[in-house]
């Protein structure tokens, strides 16, 4: 079955096949490790994880790179402002390196809790060998005549690159400086951007390096180009990020990479829409962000957030609310308790239901895939058959269904004797017409996540759903 993905370069769903027969090169822009990831960031990483799983189910090996930004990302996301890492270090009275390793670990923990399988290749921008790669890329751009120097850095001249802003459909002629990036009088054009920034004369930066142009640090955009080219080659198959990366960060990555190599940088660009809160974008600078810890503090299983995210298409905005998360939790709990009542699957592997595969291969239509999944859960197939299908589908959802339902099953198993005794006592109470006591016991059993059903043949235990 063909895999179709919405490509921001062509503005349509294109049939995806990789350049190499069985292997996909995938570059996903990673976190800036100066603070915890917020739920919006995590939505994007969940989308990328689902994409990776779908590629694998389609028979591809995935060679993925995710960068860790630990230098050069300035507070205004453009060429001005403070380095987010240095700001974070000041905030916490630590070194930039300490901040980077603390929040990198926090990110890895969040990913693990959400079943996001991270790539083996996670290069850090401030590592010596990647600083070198960034300097070399800037040198190439300089040799090819794409750069100029100002008092504060080396800039990319966006007018020298023919198709600048094509993907974002930027109206370059009418673009006013200040609307998109902050004012910088020495820049030749509003869309030019820093490749290398000089350290300030009056302040010592924590992170700075020698370069042919002077002591300083790389601009944020150049790191992704340098790492993608170094780790995956001049042309990659898919490049991903949140939608906010489309007009500036990815636009600049394309310009500098293609100017340097003369080759197409990425064949597909996929962008995840934003997570909103109170109908506004969730963001660190917006000051309205929630972390995974805030969900854990309210006793939500992190995977209920993953379930919530799967309920919306990745190209649709999604509004976060506690109410909506609660609904996801109820659906997720119901699913697990259903599965715990089923027999263990008889077969190891199960072919995917055609409708399910069609949905996921149609630009990752996970809401539709979830609906088909629930249809199967509710069908009359024997539970062992269903179980095999459900676990196969969970290779894409990543909801730990097998593990969680097994845990519940074991829990019921251990409480068997206690529950049998309660059932016996309830039966006696019923015979004595002590219905109040019988209801009390029913309630006690329900609290253990089980339902009592009275039938002609006596009481039956059922998984509560
Ligand atoms: P950052 O750490 O700011 O570089 O962002 C990491 C990733 O999260 C990027 O791919 C962003 O595009 C993405 N992102 C930022 N805010 C949101 C949001 N509210 N919803 C979804 N993705 C977001
Ligand atoms: Zn990037």
What structural keywords apply?
15 helices, 465 residues, binds zinc ion, 15% strand, 4-stranded parallel beta sheet, alpha/beta, Four Helix Bundle (Hemerythrin (Met), subunit A), 15 strands, 44% helix, Rossmann fold, zinc ion binding, binds adenosine monophosphate, coiled coil
CATH superfamily of the largest domain: HUPs
The computed structural class is alpha/beta
- Main sheet summary: 4 strands, parallel
CATH class of the largest domain: Alpha Beta
The low-confidence runs, each spanning 5 or more residues with pLDDT under 50, are none
- Spatial arrangement of strands, main beta sheet: 4-3-9-10
Average pLDDT number: 90
Count of individual domains: 2
Termini separation comes to 35 Å
Bound molecules: adenosine monophosphate, zinc ion
- DSSP strand content: 15-25%
- State the shape: elongated
Task: Predict the CATH topology of the largest domain.
Answer: Rossmann fold
> Which CATH-level-2 architecture of the largest domain?
3-Layer(aba) Sandwich
- The count of DSSP E runs of length 2 or more, i.e. the number of strands, is 15
Order of helices and strands: EEEHEHHHEEEEHEHEEEHHEHHHHHHHEE
CA gyration radius, whole angstroms: 27 Å
Helical content (DSSP H or I, runs of 4+):
40-55%
- Output the number of helix runs: 15
